[in-house]
Structures are given as C-alpha cells and as structure tokens.
Amino acid sequence: QAASSAAPLVAKATEEAKGEAPEFIVFDKVGKLAPVKFSHAAHGKRSECKNCHEGEKPLFAQKRSDVGMKMADMYAGQTCGSCHNGKTAFNAKTSCAKCHAK
C-alpha cells in the first residue's frame, strides 16, 4: 500500500457549477490502486457539512482542488482518516478494498 495522491474529479459538473454538493466525487489518481468513488451524498446524510468543511482546520475545502490526498496523511488521522480510523468508522488502513473497489 504505497502512499499516493488523488486529485478529485466531480462526477456531476452541473451540480458543482450551481454551487451544489456533488452526489459523487471520483478520486482517480491513486497509483496502482482502483479509483475511489466517494459518495458525498451518503456521507452528507450521516454527518453535517460543518464536520468536514468548517472550523479552524477543515478536513476538506468546499471546492474542487487539484491538490491530491496522500494515504500517509489519512493514516495519520487527516482527511478521510479523521473518521475512518477504526473507531468512528471502518479503518481505512486495513480496509483498502472498501474504498478502492473495482
């Protein structure tokens, strides 16, 4: 499991253009792993926007970024790893195929 970066591609550009949250975000720059199809809508039903997008150091900006994410950062409890730590949600470090599904 090599650390890799992933630049997000928003699946529904029309939603993004209108300022609406996309239903899915696809991270496709993942090295040798399968792309990640992140269900923004499903996560939004379980959590409030502010939990990921607000505060002094938000986990994620509320806009598309060309800056990728690194697995090492996630394993250190940043980005997705803030919840996917084995306590709040499944552990990303030991459950790669749950996100990197073909």
What does this structure look like?
There is one protein chain. This protein is α+β, with helices and mostly antiparallel strands. 25% of the residues lie in helices and 11% in strands. It has five helices and three strands; from the N terminus they run E-H-E-E-H-H-H-H. The protein has helices at residues 13-17, 40-46, 49-53, 71-75, 96-99, and strands at residues 8-10, 24-27, 36-39. Strands 1-2-3 form a three-stranded antiparallel beta sheet. A hairpin with an 8-residue loop joins strand 2 and strand 3 (36-39). It is globular and about 30 Å long. Residues 1-15 have low confidence and may be disordered.
Structure, briefly:
The chain is α+β, with helices and mostly antiparallel strands and 102 residues long. It is built from five helices and three strands, in the order E-H-E-E-H-H-H-H.
| Helix fraction by DSSP (H/I, runs of at least 4) | 25-40%
Order of strands, main sheet, comes to 1-2-3
Summarize model confidence as the mean pLDDT.
80
Structural class: alpha+beta
Shape: globular
Classify the beta-strand content into a percent band.
5-15%
Unreliable stretches, pLDDT < 50, 5 or more residues? 1-15
Number of distinct helices: 5
State Rg.
13 Å
The N- and C-terminal alpha carbons lie at a distance of 16 Å
Element order, helices and strands? EHEEHHHH
Question: What distinguishing features does this structure have?
Answer:
3-stranded antiparallel β-sheet; disordered N terminus; alpha+beta; 3 strands; globular; 102 residues; 11% strand
